[in-house]
Structure prediction request, 332 residues.
Amino acid sequence: MKSIQITTYNKNIIRALLGLKLQEKETGIPGNNEVLVKMHAAPCNPSDIAFIQGTYNIVKKLPAVPGFEGSGMVVETGKNTGHLLGKKISAFVQSDTDGTWAEYFVVNADDLIALQDEMDLDQAACFTVNPFTAYGLMDIAGQRESKAIVQNAAGSQVAAFVRMMARENGVKVIDIVRKKEHVGLLESQGAQHVLCENERDFEEQLNKLSKTLQATTAFDAVGGRLAGTIFNALVPDAELVVYGGLSGKPIENIHLMGPIFQNKIISGFNLIDWKADLGGGEFEKISEKLQNKFISGAYKTQIQGSTTLDKIVNGLRNYIAGMSAGKVLIRP
Prediction:
């Protein structure tokens, strides 16, 4: 089968991309609790970019096939997985095995979601990470009974799903973007409170809005000084939930009076840990609920285009240059 392989990690993103090679590889054979998936498509997520740079928390023995997420059809099964033969699936796996940027992919049954027949496979390629991340984040806000939340990286797909779910639950959202042109874009999509972090009065606007709307939860995908600024703007008894580190920098500029006297805290969110902590059958119920939203058209991942395995370098360079336009799918 054809596959993309990474042979060395490189923090320089251009060199990391140029290090991706299209190679022939033996198609894997599924073990007892595994299946062989004929890939339909796989997205490139920020975690994939960090992985090929060697800066992600997952470091695999090289050479390896990248790709944590994707969709396809089960074409061969192991001893215990015969019920999945012919099923549409969406998978997310971060174990020390080959990834989804290939024609075929062997995956443990515990790391996939069997899909309803009506589920679109392009949407399914991006199903197991962003919608569930947004759901888990909003669950935290729900437990805190938050009337308003703050989120950065507001042009991302996770942020888009957060807005959808917040709207359904009557929760106000303060969105933060880096570029001024993204303010109008989000407002045209229905966002009500959009701030640009590079505006001169950004901190003043954020502090005022946070107090007015009583924002008690924030979702941080960036880190650095911006995360500290958001933390400081939250009202007492609030929580900053960190789920990404796009800036590559530690959180800065935290006012110490917040944690000491205002009961403000910082926590982390990891999708795999969140899934593991769910009760029996709960993840399946959430999956069915989210699938129905996609099938009805209420939820949708923005997909800006696609690329093929043999053109992956150019395809990913275009994606990195304009992530806010939506996902780029890698098709075998």
About this structure: The CA atoms of residues 208 and 233 lie 8 Å apart.
